[in-house]
Structures are given as C-alpha cells and as structure tokens.
TrEMBL record, chain A:
Residues 1-10 have a biased composition (Polar residues). Residues 1-34 are annotated as: Disordered. Its cofactor is FAD. Keywords: FAD, Flavoprotein, Oxidoreductase. Residues 70-248 form the FAD-binding PCMH-type domain. This is FAD-binding protein. It comes from Nocardioides jiangsuensis.
Automatic annotation (TrEMBL), chain B:
Keywords: FAD, Flavoprotein. Residues 31-210 form the FAD-binding PCMH-type domain. InterPro entries: FAD-bd_PCMH, FAD-bd_PCMH-like_sf, FAD-bd_PCMH_sub2, FAD-linked_Oxase-like_C, Oxid_FAD_bind_N. This is FAD-binding oxidoreductase. It comes from Nocardioides jiangsuensis. PROSITE patterns: FAD_PCMH. The keyword Transcription regulation does not apply.
Length: 518, 422
C-alpha cells in the first residue's frame, strides 16, 4: 500500500489492508491485557479527567490519522496535561513493555500516528501552551500540541513568524511537525522544521525527561535533537520545543504564471534557480490539478494552461523588486502566456487558494486518490513528469500533479474509483512506479510526509541493509525494547540484542503475513 | 604524554593488505600529545572499510584525520594505535549545478570544493575558519563562521553522508536531494561528533548561489551594552544581514561588523539602511575586516604555545552579559564571533596561569549557561585541559553514551576525546 486515499472517501477498514501487526502484536494476549490494564490504572492515577479514554466508541475516534485507509482502534487513549503526567504514562508503558504511539493533530499522511490495538495512544491535544515568545532571542518555547499557525500568530505582533508552513498549518501540531520534519511551500528558501527547532524536551521510551539543545545553537555533544526531528515518534515523545522565529519580510510578491506545458514551467523553474534567485516558493500545478482546483474553488487560473507556477518572492523591498523583474523576464522567455502579480494580501490569498485547495479539490473529480510525496533532483522534473504522463497513459490511471517545483518534491495525485474492480490495484501500481522513478533519479520516497507505516516497505529500495541497520543503531540506543511507535518507518523491525525474550517464536509480522500485504 | 603505541606484526599485515599506504607514525602524527603507531592512507570508502575491519579484527584504536588542522581539539584520545588519514580522498565527486548540490570525498579541502563550484557561480556556504580544512574535518568538528547567520552551519547544508562504522560496515544516510525525510538523519549525528561515531568518507551538500555583491559595514563599539544594542537593532531591522560579527580584543575597543550580500541593488539599499542603524561612526568597505571568519587565537601554535580556545553560546539576549563577563574574567579574553546568532569564540593567551584560566572558564560558563547556552574549551595547553572541565555539563549524556555504545561498542574511535569521556 502506498499513498493517501482521499480522506473523505477512503476505502473502509474492510477493504483496506490493516497492518495485522498493529492489531495484535504477540501471541501472549493475556500478558498484553494485563499490561494494558496496569497502564490504564496508572494513567487514571496521574492524568486528570477526561484524559483517559477506554470507552470503545470514543477510542474509535482515534483509529486513524490523515491516511484514513489504515484503521486500528487503540487499546487505550491518554491525553495528559503536563510533561510529568506524560512521562509517568510512558514509564508505565516501559515497565510493562507496552507499545505507545504519540499523536498530535492526526493530520499525518503516512500513517505515523496509526494506533496499536495492544498499546497506548498518547495524544498531545491538552498540551497547547505557548510558554514564551522572546523577541529579543528570536525564539518561542511551545508545547507539542500547539498548532503550527498559532506560533506565527503569537509572533506576528513582534514582527516575526514561524517559517515552516505545511499546508495543514491551521490544524497540525508542532509535535507532529517535529516528528515528521515537516516542510511547506516556503521551505525552499527557509528550510524545514529541522532548521528551525533548536531545542526539545523529550520523554524517552524509558520515561525519562531529557533536554536536547536549547535556546542557544550548537549544544555540545551528539546532535540527538537532529536525530529526533524527523524520527516519526520512534525515539520518544517531544513535550516542548524551542523554535526559531524569523523576521517577517519587508516585501512579499506573488506571481502566477501560465504555461502551455509542464515542460515549459519546469524549464522556467530551472532558469529562475539557475539565475541565482532563491524565491520563497515555486509551486507547480498541471492541467488536471488546475481543472480540479477550478471546479472546487473557482480560482480563475489562466484558461487553457497546461501548467501554472505560483512563485513567491520575499525579503528586502529593493531585492524583491529587482528579482521580480528577473522572474517576469525568465517566465516570458520560457513562453509564459499569462502573468499575474499579487501585491496585496487579498490578491496573494487568491493566487494561493487554488494551490492550497488542490488536494481537496482532486477529491471532487475523483472518488479516491493516492497522494505521493517523492522527491527528484529539480533538473529531472521535465523528464520525470513526462515519464509519469507515459505511465498514466499506458495504465489508463489519471495522475494530477501538484508540487513544490523549487525543490523537486512531487505530490502526484493518483486518481481512481474504489468501486471499480481492480482500479485500486492499478492505482497502487502506478503510485509505486512513480516512487521507483524518483528513486531511479537519485531522489527520495518522501520529502515531507514521512515514511510511517505507508512507505516502510519502500525503504529497502532507497537504502540497503547496512544503511537500515545503521539507522537501527540509533533506534536501539533510544528505544531498545522497541515500544515507541513500533512498526513505523522501518520495514522489518529488528531486535536490538541485549534485551532478551521480548518476542518469542515467529515474528508477528511474518506470522500475520504482512510481507504478502506489502 | 602518553607512550608511543606499538602495533603488532599481524595487525600491520592486516592493514597493509587493506590499504596500499600504511606507514609508521612520526611526531607530526601526534594527536594532542598521543603518539599513534601507524598511519593508513586509504584512497576510497572501500579501503577505509577494509582498514576499519582490520583495526577491529586486531583491537586497534583509531583516530580519523582529514587535513589535521584541528587534531588537538577536544580532549586527547585515550589511545591512538592507528590514524586513518583521509587526505588521499580529495575528489569532488559530483557537482550538479542545476540542482545546486555537490558531492565530495571527506579529505577534500573546502577551498577545492569552492573552486569546483565557483564556475557555476555557486558556493558551499560554510566559512573556512582554519585554512586548509577538509570537508570531513569541518563536519566532524562542526565548525562554522560568520555566514552561519544567514545560511546555517554544515548541519543545515549536509544532505547525504557515507560513513564507515567502527566495525567496518559502510552505511549511507540522506540522499542527493535537498528535501528528504526518509529514515533517520544520521548525518546530524555525525556533525560535531569529533570522529567518535564513525569515519565520514563522502558527503553531499546543498549549495547556494554566489552573491553578486557584498559589503561590510563596521562600527567601533564602546562597551558590551553598546554592542548588544546595535546587534538588537540590526537583527530586528529589515537589512537581512549575511553576518553580524563582533571582534573585541582584551585590551581595546571592539568592532561590530555587518555583512550584506546579494544582488548589487539590494546590497546598496541595505548597506545604507545599516549605516543608519549603526550611527555616524560606521563605515563601509568592500573588503572583510582583519580576522574575519577566523578565530581570535593563533591556529598554528602547538603544545603549550596554544591559547585556551573557547566556544561560547547563548541566547541573543545574553550578548551583553557574555561580553561583560569576558571583560571581567579576571584574565584577558579576546572575543570574536557571531553576535547575531549567539556563537562567539574567546581566546585566553598562551602562558596564562592555569588557575586564572580555570577561573575565567568557570565565570564565562556560568554566564553562558544562565543564557541558555554553553561553553566548550575547544583547545588549550595540556595543563589547562587537565585542570578544567573541557566540555562542561551535558544534559543528555546518558543517551549520548547509549548512541556511542551502539555505534562503537568497543570504543575504538577516538575514545576519550568527546563529551563525558566518549
Ligand atoms: C491537507 C493536508 C496538507 C498537508 N500539507 C503538508 C505540507 O505541506 N507539508 C508537510 O510536511 N506535511 C503536510 N501534511 C502532513 C501533516 O500535516 C504533517 O505531517 C504534520 O506535521 C503532522 O502533524 P500532526 O500534529 O497532525 O501529527 P500526527 O499526524 O498526529 O502525527 C504525525 C507523526 O508524529 C508523531 N508525533 C506526533 N506528536 C508527537 C510528539 N509530540 N512527539 C513525538 N512524535 C510525535 C506521531 O507518532 C506520528 O508518527 C499535510 C496534511 C494534510 C492533511
């Protein structure tokens, strides 16, 4: 399985292959039940109401994240209010060898927050305090459940903002951003979450609370923070983050350029970057994506465009003015047939509306779809887009392309109708072939959505056993018993050694035939 | 000083078959007073792997060396049977100009990388703080200079890395694309690890366009409070500084310099705004001021001739306090570094009484810590390293030990050099 099905129209649990490991881990059910009961009791002692959920109907509301195709009802949901409560619950899990999964807002697109039936889902939604906004230091200290956009809202009165801006920024949490190393349209110029988080408080899988990094840069010792960011909740739970605030730019210009084809738009992208300009964002949409957006939000993009670019320049006013002239020239040189420039926030919002609604819009032209997140070197864009078009044509599966062109992060939307027999499988095949294309061009299987449960099976296509074993060393250092979000990121959970007797007999993945599922 | 290591014949044989050039170490190969037995000069990742397997097979301790510009940094290793010298791995493997990435072997000099990419009007946006430094050494020591204000450190530029583990296994992490979240970011762990985790053999970096123009605006600073005020006015303004440095000698007035980079028109406009911010005493120059992108201590001094070299970090609101503390350290401290990011370097001259150095280190460390930062003694004469806490308190030291133990269970790599005796 790969990619995301339209969240409103997902295949239900009966048709979607639920990873069996997630539903029941071992044969030792009695032990697990006793462990779950013990942790539940401990949670009740330390976490105030209504922070412990055991009622089945309420547990089910947490059964999936943004990748709604996978569903597992968690064994227990705990919503702590403080780091001490959270640590106590994790400590209890450690004591009883019970798996736990962190969950922020549940918008993840790779199944990272998919619960465990035999474990605890630790939700950060009651840890939403912005503890400090320190203009003088250009820092904010926030709890993990704080919504991304709220950091910017809190910083705005000081003339600052929080730069990483996933499209989901109105709903996703900082904890989830840290875990996924989330990106956004403006990461081309400003970098990803990992470049903006300077410190974190981490509850380790043992239940200890450690401080990694801090307000100052370059904390001495290993950069454990660098490993934790992007580790998808497998190295512990982040309970606070110290983030960098960036000065709001003096000037912002947003340009919408219409081209005859993705080839032209791709060439324009390369020309802009080649000219030494680093725009804040360059986003591309192809004809099918434009059509979908048009139908959904009437964004009034240039009629007849085979592709559009949304280019945003920001910075000091003089620079933006000059670069704008360059970008305009380069777009025309690459046969842009229409250029529109937004100068005020309202016009800018209009241009972005089409782009930002694209995922949801595709849901209107297709009952189901898979979102991929592969990355390619930018120069390979035209070639890969053509190959995707060929794939689409030969398979009869429609693919809409919406993506971060500036950094080669594709989001092909593979469209299908689950009610048509074989359509899901055909879409899967195309989707997998697109990832292979990315890997074949020296790219990555995921640029920002994470591996989660969804792309774990693709990891061996990108990394060999030695690479994966080396990553596993990090995992084993933090979580030797593999209780922190097990089954995510890595295809075949390896045992760490030195921790005997945790799993006996046939590995649950094998036993449950997960290898066949993938 | 530690005794010279002797390496037995069987180990020599094994190393010789792993790599063509294996030589007896000379005095020049000493690692901060520790005399190694042998030096191996592998020419490829595969050879480094062979060498590491041979070392593992014969229980040899290993210190990796790039260009040897910072071998005395940190604490001396407990032992160094073998130096793995990477200077033979000096190739820029790939420069994909259109993708703004470069791939180089670990022993490649930074200057050679810059030369390779300059033709495409690009740069690896890392300052060469010690002349002749290699890519791998810069990565392992985690050095950075003024440019970090705008473009970060190697931590932010590294997109892929190949390492050879202590057991000789070759592993890669990251990739060839700037945006990539597949798997753990092992590159981050290697950055600043002082060669204690694995031997870096190849690395991929994102590049930046070379700015068409640059200018330096400098102004004398009266005291710590003045430097602090000016720094705050620049960072909150709209001048988008490329660097914001202070240089404050122990015995005289200091200077604050703002670098502005970019397109000609932009630099002109922002230079004039910066002049306004810094006041009538400020002056513009096309050239970097003396000492730019270098440490306030002489980097070629050895042994007891070395200054005590400090790295001080702090949240920006602590700048005045840190500069003040340097003035009141009880002994002369020359401070220079990135006031705009809260990373400055301090030099206590060679020959300063050890007890006085110790007092200065304690005072400055207390100040940095109270502002959310730290103080590390990067280098110092042996007596100073013995007398002071070189690395200082490390909050997550237990986890770090666990990482070390997983990567290098026999503590083969530069053991003792890093935090907490790692
Ligand atoms: C419409 C839409 C648009 C999106 N656009 C983007 C985009 O532009 N760029 C982008 O990068 N992503 C995007 N995403 C994906 C998603 O929003 C991000 O991955 C986001 O960071 C997830 O945050 P969350 O709070 O929802 O995390 P969740 O989904 O709750 O969790 C995500 C992962 O983080 C772990 N986790 C959560 N909190 C913690 C914690 N405190 N400590 C440790 N681990 C934790 C979970 O275990 C899980 O593995 C989009 C999603 C949607 C639905």
């Amino acid at each position: 399985m790969s990619g995301t099905h339209g969240t409103n129209r997902t295949a239900g649990p009966e048709t979607g292959p639920v990873p069996p490991e997630a539903t029941q881990a071992t044969g030792e059910t009695g032990d697990r039940d006793r462990a779950l009961a013990a942790v539940t009791q401990r949670a009740r002692e330390v976490v105030p109401e209504p922070g412990v959920i055991t009622d089945h109907a309420r547990l089910r509301t947490y059964e999936c994240d943004g990748l709604a195709h996978y569903k597992v009802t968690p064994g227990l949901v705990v919503i702590p209010e403080t780091v001490d409560q959270l640590a106590a619950v994790v400590r209890a899990c450690a004591e009883h060898q019970l798996p736990f999964v962190a969950r922020g807002a549940g918008t993840g697109l790779s199944g990272g927050a998919l619960p465990r039936a035999d474990g605890v889902l630790v939700v950060t939604s009651r840890m939403r305090t912005i503890r400090e906004v320190r203009r003088e230091d250009q820092r904010a200290v926030v709890e993990p459940g704080v919504i991304n956009l709220d950091v910017t809202r809190a910083a705005a009165p000081h003339g600052y903002y929080y730069a990483p801006d996933p499209s989901s920024q109105q709903i996703c949490s900082i904890g989830g951003n840290v875990a996924e190393n989330s990106g956004g349209a403006h990461c081309l110029k400003y970098g990803f979450t990992t470049n903006h988080v300077l410190g974190a408080e981490l509850v380790t899988p043992d239940g200890d609370v450690v401080q990694l990094g801090g307000a100052a840069p370059d904390a001495p010792g290993y950069d454990l923070l660098g490993a934790v960011v992007g580790s998808e909740g497998t190295l512990g739970i982040v309970t606070a983050a110290t983030v960098r605030l960036v000065r709001a730019p003096e000037e912002v210009r947003t340009i919408l350029a219409g081209f005859a084809s993705t080839d032209h738009a791709g060439a324009a992208t390369s020309a802009i970057i080649g000219a030494g300009i680093v725009p804040a964002a360059i986003e591309m949409m192809d004809a099918l994506a434009i059509e979908a957006a048009e139908e959904a939000v009437h964004c009034n993009y240039p009629a007849g465009a085979g592709a559009v670019l949304v280019i945003e320049l920001d910075g000091a006013a003089v620079e933006v003015e000059h670069e704008f002239g360059e970008v305009e020239r380069l777009c025309r040189e690459h046969e842009a047939f229409e250029l529109r420039v937004a100068t005020d926030p309202a016009e800018r919002a209009l241009i972005w509306k089409g782009r930002k609604s694209a995922f949801a819009a595709v849901g209107r032209i297709s009952p189901d779809y898979i979102v991929q997140d592969g990355v390619i070197p930018r120069t390979a864009l035209p070639e890969v887009l053509r190959a995707i078009a060929d794939l689409s044509e030969s398979s009869g599966v429609r693919v809409a392309n919406v993506f971060h062109a500036g950094d080669g992060n594709l989001h092909p939307l593979v469209l299908f109708d689950e009610s048509v027999e074989g359509a899901g499988e055909a879409a899967e095949k195309v989707s997998g072939a697109i990832l292979d294309l990315c890997i074949g061009h020296g790219g990555s299987i995921t640029g920002e959505h994470g591996v989660g449960i969804d792309k774990a099976a693709y990891m061996p296509r990108m990394f060999n056993d030695e690479d994966l074993d080396t990553m596993q060393l990090v995992r084993c250092a933090f979580d030797p018993n593999s209780i922190s979000n097990p089954g995510k990121v890595f295809p075949t959970p390896r045992l760490c050694g030195e921790v005997p007797g945790k799993r006996k007999g046939v590995h649950p993945l094998q036993e449950s035939g997960l290898a066949e599922v993938f | 000083m530690a005794a010279t290591t002797t390496v037995d014949e069987a180990a020599r044989q094994a190393l010789a078959s792993a790599c063509e050039r294996v030589e007896d170490a000379t005095a020049a190969d000493e690692v901060d007073g520790v005399a190694p037995g042998l030096v191996a000069h592998p020419g490829s990742t595969a050879q480094v792997a062979e060498v590491m397997r041979a070392a593992a097979g014969h229980g040899l301790t290993v210190v990796a060396r790039g260009r040897g510009t910072k071998t005395t940094w940190g604490l001396p290793p407990a032992r160094a049977d073998l130096v793995v010298d990477l200077s033979g791995m000096d190739q820029v493997l790939d420069h994909a100009a259109g993708d703004l990435i470069v791939e180089a072997q670990a022993g490649t000099r930074l200057s050679d990388v810059q030369q390779a990419v300059a033709g495409a009007r690009q740069r690896l946006a890392i300052d060469e703080t010690v002349s002749g430094a290699s890519v791998g050494g810069t990565l392992a020591a985690g050095t950075s200079g003024p440019g970090r204000l705008a473009t970060g450190t190697m931590r932010d530029l590294l997109i892929g890395v190949t390492v050879v583990r202590a057991d000789g296994v070759v592993a890669k992490a990251g990739g060839r694309v700037v945006k990539n979240v597949a798997g753990y970011d092992v590159g981050k762990l290697v950055h600043g690890s002082f060669g204690t985790l694995a031997v870096v053999t190849e690395a991929l970096f994102r590049l930046h366009p070379l700015p068409a123009a640059r200018s330096f605006v400098s102004v004398p600073v009266e005291d710590a409070a003045h430097a602090h005020r000016l720094t705050q006015s620049v960072v909150h303004a709209q001048v988008v500084p490329g660097a914001l440095e202070v240089d404050i000698p122990a015995d005289g007035p200091g200077t604050l310099t703002v670098l502005l980079e970019g397109i000609v028109e932009g630099v002109l406009g922002r230079t004039s705004s910066t002049l306004d911010l810094l006041g009538p005493a400020a002056a513009v120059s096309d050239d970097a001021p003396d000492g730019w992108a270098s440490y306030p201590w002489p980097v070629d001094a050895a042994g007891d001739e070395r200054a005590t070299a400090l790295k001080l970090t702090f949240a920006l609101s602590g700048l005045a306090d840190v500069l003040e503390a340097a003035r009141d350290a009880g002994t002369p401290v020359h401070v220079r570094g990135s006031a705009g990011t809260g990373v400055v370097y301090g030099a206590v001259p060679a020959g300063t009484d050890v007890a006085a150095v110790s007092v200065a280190v304690d005072r400055l460390r207390a100040t940095c810590t109270s502002h959310g930062g730290s103080l590390v003694v990067l280098d110092a004469p042996a007596a100073v390293k013995q007398a002071v806490d070189v690395w200082g308190p490390i909050p997550a030291i237990d986890l770090m030990r666990r990482v070390k133990d997983r990567f290098d269970p026999d503590h083969r790599l530069a053991s003792g050099r890093f935090v907490g005796g790692i």
